[in-house]
Specification:
Blueprint lengths: L1 H17 L10 E10 H9 L2 H7 L9 E13 L2 E12 L13 E13 L7 E14 L2 E15 L4 E12 L7 E11 L25 E10 L10 E5 L5 E5 L5 E8 L3 E7 L2 E8 L8 E8 L4 E9 L4 E2 L4 E6 L4 E6 L6 E6 L4 E7 L3 E3 L1 E5 L10 E10 L5 E4 L18 H11 L5 E6 L6 H21 L7 E5 L12 H7 L1 E6 L2
Parallel strand pairs: 9-15, 16-24, 26-27
Antiparallel strand pairs: 1-2, 1-8, 2-3, 3-4, 4-5, 5-6, 6-7, 7-8, 9-12, 10-11, 10-13, 13-14, 16-17, 16-20, 18-19, 18-21, 21-23, 22-24, 25-28, 26-28
Helix pairs in contact: 2-3
Amino acid sequence: MKHIFLSIFLLMALFGLQAQTEKPVKKPTIGLHFFYNDVETAQRIKATSLSDVLKTGNWNPANNMQGGFGLDYLQGLTPNIDLIGTFNGSWADYLQPSGTYYGSSNFLLDVSAGAHLKLLTDKSPVSPFLLLKANFQKYKALNGFSVAPGAGLQFSLWNETFVLATVEYRKSLSSSISNQLYYSVGFATNIGKLKPKRVPVVVPPPPPVVEIPKRISDIKITATDEATGQPLPYVEVTLSGPEGKKLNGITDANGQVTFNQLTEADYSVQGILNNINTTSRNIGKADFEAKTINVNLSHNDPRFTLSGVVINKTRNLPEAGAEITVSNLTKKSLTTKQSKAGDGTFLAQLEAESDFTVVGKKADYISNIEKVSTKGLNRSATLYVKLELGIEEAKVGQSIVLNNIYFETGKSLIKADYSTDLDKLIQFLNDNPATRLEIQGHTDNTGSVTLNNKLSQARAESVVKYLNLKGITTDRLTAKGYGQSMPITSNLTEEGRQKNRRVEMKVIQ
């Protein structure tokens, strides 16, 4: 039986694919049929096998079967799949699963629902089909469900009238009802014939009024810095047209933005950058004599523009999503920006005659602290101050060399005025309050191992003490001296020895 069910389901999938083409679908159809229930043959198949029953010819003759009448309702789901519901009734002496008859004739009710899977459509004179139904039977106190695979033939007569002949094997899903072989023959006719809808008479619209076409032009806008004449990117431009219509755009690297295919009308245009408006310009219908209308806007901002890019030093690629803080040390003010996706760039405005520090912030990264100054710069000659800001990944287990921490020769005393990486380290620890570090001291191979171990430990401890004085708690810091045991380059040259004399930070949490 498992092989029969599997074959039916595979055929269902095949017919479902075939049914995707445009073919007629069966309308609601009702039918009347006569049927025979053969319980005895089904019991013999269950007791032995189908092949044994066929070999021995032990098939129950028709005059020993119990018949009845039923109603069908069919409706097409696709051209090759019809849904079917069946209602059957008969008077029968029921052969129970135990092999004994009930002993008297009583009313047997069964109701089933399922689908016919047709090899051909209703347009064919004869269409074989497979069927699969779920069935419910009730006989006195006996009731239960069964699953009914089977096969049949559909004969198309005339005017969507059909003769249907089927055979089913009803496999009981309940111990209270018996397996059955079920044979039926009947006819069905379409009840879904609807009167054709009246097609409304469509009165053609009057011919359109021919209007003289209006001229169409592109409007190309260029924004420049008033002091230097340089093109300005990122200017937000608004083009206001008739009936309050507004178009918006942003200038590109060449300071330009184009609004294409605009119909002649009166327009006004203005831009804004860094909260300062550009000049404005009106465009009239007469300007549309040209295919491209060129508009120049100027922008007057006395500040300089910091044009920066954040570089991930670990991977040597631009880094997006870093928060950049630009502090004006002269005027005691600050501003924050975000590095952009793709190119890691950021822009910030710098006041004249001022000193600035620029630092980045991103989780699990340590940033350089860069200094910038506009003192002595001429705004009429200089618009952009360029800067590359390096940040480095600082994940757990990672060590980073702090190049700009210096000590007195042969001592552990820090030269704080020159050790700019101390500020970088403090900034990182303040930005990442849950991070713990091991501060490592390293030396070259000059001198004895014992002396170098002692010196590297003392220098690491000096850095920890300095950080403590700046508010970093001791539970976040560990000092460890490694002496000359971990060189990063050869000690054969002075340059190599200088690189090996270093302080590193290692993230341990």
